[in-house]
Structure formats: C-alpha cells, structure tokens
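Per reviewer request, we include the raw input and output of the structure prediction for the construct analysed in the revised manuscript.
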Amino acid sequence: MRILLLSAFHPDARYLKKALLEASHSVEELHDARDGVFAANDESFDVIVLMTGVPTSMRSVSDAISQLRAVAHDVVLIVVSDPLKADERTAMLKLGADAGFERPVSFLEFNERMKRLLRVRSPRLVTRLGPLDAETLTYAERATRCKLTRHEFLMMECLLRAGQATVDRDRLVRYVWPGKDDVNPANLNLLASRLRMKLQTAGMTVKLVSVPGVGYGLLTEGVSPPA
C-alpha cells in the first residue's frame, strides 16, 4: 500500500511510520499539509494519513482535509488527532475524512481499518493486488506461493498495481525505498534480477520484464510485453 504520511512534526509520527514500514507499506513522509497537497496531485497514493498539530486546531484540520480532497478524490483519508468532541469528529467526516483516530493510536486497529477502507474506496486495486499477502510476504498463483523479501514485495506490489503498463525506474525507486535520495541505480537492477529468478524458480506464469531505458513491467503468458 502506498501511503502519504503528513506528520506535522508530531513525535508519534516516528512510531506510526516505523509500524507502517514494518507492515510492508510504502510510506512517503512530509511534514506540512500544503506539501501533501502537491504530492497527492503529483502521485497516486492509496491512503493519506493526516496527523494534526498539538493542540489540534479544527480550522487547520478542516482546511487541510478540504485541500487534500480537492486533489485526491478516491484516496482513503485518515486523521490522527487529539481527543475531539462529537461535533468536531462529525465535521471531519462531512468534509471528506474516511476515519479519525485519537492519539495514542493502536496500530493493529489502525492497519485493519485502513485495509478495510481501501477495499471500499478502491475495490479494483485490491483485486489486482490480491495475489500478494503482506503478512507472509508472499506472491501466490493458484496453490503455489513464492516467498519474497520486503523490497521484493514492494517492487511486486508497485508492478502489479500498474497492470500491463511499464513502471519507470524513478517511480519504482520511490516506492521500494521511500524517502531515500541516494539509492544506487544498480540496486534496482539487482532487486529485479532476484525477483525475476524467484518467480521463474517457483514456476509462476507472470514474468518480470525489463524495458530498456524506461523501467520494468509484468507480463502474463499470452499477453504482449508492456510498452
């Protein structure tokens, strides 16, 4: 799952980001909601987590929700805040938030609610990513399962969500190594080589193909290579 975390420099953001990464999500962290609007307009995210400042200002939260919803219509939007009154929580939902959590957050509940909301918001994407299991880090075809590393899992997830289209190298690097600006290009080549070998060894019908000068894509037997 590709997640945009707007942390507002809150100390709880470190815990939440670490938990999300350990759950095999791809997390892009920004500190300001205005930067988040630009990011959401530039890239497709599955979930946006908006952490409010301390103390929570309903005016700033309302403005942020409205601005994010204006550019990210189908994204799951979750707000993490200080305890709010019932009318304040209701106002957030009316503005476009899908759910609200009060600090401190129980990550188990947070993760399950987030996945359930994604199934409602983006059922086609969830179906496309169905062969992947984040808890076991596996890719499955029929009764066959292929065990993956976390980086292999994220690369496979990024490619699956693109269908038969080619994913450019820069996007893959941001997805697999979120927040890293110094990734050696050779690391992606090596990762793709290992993933391709695992899929072949497991007898999977899906093939990982390289598109020179562009990036990588997935090819299903009987379908033309991605362009």
